[in-house]
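Data card: per-record layout.
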Amino acid sequence: MGEDSVPISPTARRRRLGIELRRLREREQLTLLQVAQRMKCSDAKISRIEAGKHSTRTRDVLALLDIYRVADERTREVLATLAKQSTQRGWWVTYGGAIPDWFEVYVGLESEATEIRTVETHLVPGLLQTEAYATALIRSTQPLAPAEELTRQVELRLARQRRLHEHDPMRLRVVLGEAVLRCRVGDDAVMRDQLGHLAVLAERSHVELRVVRFNSPAYTAFGRPFAILGFPEPTDPGLVYTEHRTGALYIDEPAQIASFALAFDHLVAAALSRKESARLLRETAAFWT
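The structure for this 289-residue chain is written out next.
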């Protein structure tokens, strides 16, 4: 794979296809049940297609486009291509058991996101972790994991970071609580190198990194870490991703996405400037000696 190439993500293609098919159905003012009756299938199947949860056969997509009175050949070709791409294997499948099912969905969506806004309270985001920090973190949270599995998880995390180093990289906006800089992961050298790495990344035009100090009135508003993923298609509202102990929650309801976006903007307003944040990162890195 070349440095400038972005691998196709079947997860993202399924989601994009579902969004477009739902938009077309709603344009025709048809219910799921009405479409299912014409397709001679269950309404649950149509719902799954629109949710992007499963790959969709090209013939089913073309049949839906007939129902939705889509005659434009370009539109039909684009959506048929999305259906074909939705059946491909994602690049991450080579990492096997190193990636749980609930996180596989996120990796697939992250692969084609053009912007990610993320808030972290205690740990460095995976896209910004050094190899040593990622290794120490995974080892501490999974002490019984075999060495080979640990290695695969670290390799996957580093592979995800390619999106930041492409010719046309994703835009990454990060708000960190000051605790991220103080929460020990690994030894002093790991922390020092990690914070130095963040300071270097913060100088890149496509990476906006800000820190909220402990003494900021906004610090108590952090709550649970979350990420807002944005995609290039104008009809795609994006989604919010947040993890819990045994899985993750994906939120795609526009009003809820707007609420998270507002929370993100409030934290940005309360954070240090990009320049001040980079300075704090360097100063704190020196503390870890």
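Known properties of this structure: Residues 1-5 have pLDDT under 50 and may be disordered. The two ends are 39 Å apart (CA to CA).

See the next section for split statistics.
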